[in-house]
Amino acid sequence: MQPAITVHNPAEIDFDRPGKSIYEVAFHYDGTWGNALVPLAVINGTAGAGPGVACFGGTHGNEYEGQVAVWRLMHELDPAQICGRVILMPRLNTPACISGTRESGRDGVNMNRAFPGNPKGTLTYRIAHFVTTHILPLVDVVLDIHAAGSGMQFALCSSFHLVADAQQYQQMKTVASLFDTPFVFIYSSAMASGLLTDQAEAMGKVTIGGEFGHSAGILRQGVQHAYHGIQNVLRHYRMLPGATIKIDPSRTTPPRLVSATSLESYIPAPISGYFEPVLDVGAAVRQGELVGRLYDFERVGDPPLAVSAPRNGYILLQPFQAPLRKGDTMLVVAEEVGD
Predict the structure, then answer these.
(1) Candidate CATH numbers 2.40.50.100, 3.30.230.10, 3.90.850.10, 3.40.50.1000; the one for domain 262-336
(2) What is the pTM of this model?
(3) Pick from 112, 147, 149: which is nearest to 128 by CA?
(4) I want to staple 179 with a disulfide (CB 3.0 to 4.6 A). Which of 78, 229, 250, 290 is the partner?
(5) pLDDT-derived band at 1, boundaries 50, 70, 90
């Protein structure tokens, strides 16, 4: 066990110290005395020089697979085996993790809408600013481990945005495949702004996200893919010894590259109601095929509304909890794309 060092000023963090240093970075609360203590590990390998990788879990507080995988690696990675620098933040939005919510329990802000942050903003914006100014400049690769939270269900996937830079795109496609998930998902950056991955991509980093669970639980397979996938990335960059491994030996096919980069692929609920899935996430569908039904129980005379696939492809996302509000994303169907 290694005691954590509490720091109140980022300047107190020695990002170049050889070996492993574990910190609790204090960010003062808004409106009351006290601090959010955000865990941070900096590992400067003693096995040689190498690139830098940053790993984040807990960007949303009700997504636990990343918190578990990154926390384990924070304690298990051995500096004597590492070449280069690994920075791990297993509970990035610590207040949200404590409250078990998507947004911070302190200022109500979604960390994944707060980037690049603001040094004079509320708590979440200040944590985001710390990442933008103190973490991202030190690394070449950024891994942001997510899950679908409590309301939605995602097919197990690693993910990245479609970017204009061809070399960055090819590197991200390669690195995403190292998580050995059934799907590698190229998704739209137009669905939201202020994402951690947006900021890292804009800074030229090889940036990978992923959805490794759902229902605010801890999916065993999701933890395996996140935990071993991060280590595969380190092996790929020769920061850890050994070859990359196949994480799911039972699956005989490589990860399937799928894309939903236009807003037309993200189907909103046309009415408020309750969603009944007809197929599981990950299922292949044909355009027009029935994938679910939406019930408005307040309108007794109305039959359920049939929900059909808008295109050929695979169901990447659908509701896990039945209630939906009008305008909520109800369905994502991604199409398979070539290399």
Answers:
(1) 2.40.50.100
(2) 0.96
(3) 112
(4) 229
(5) low
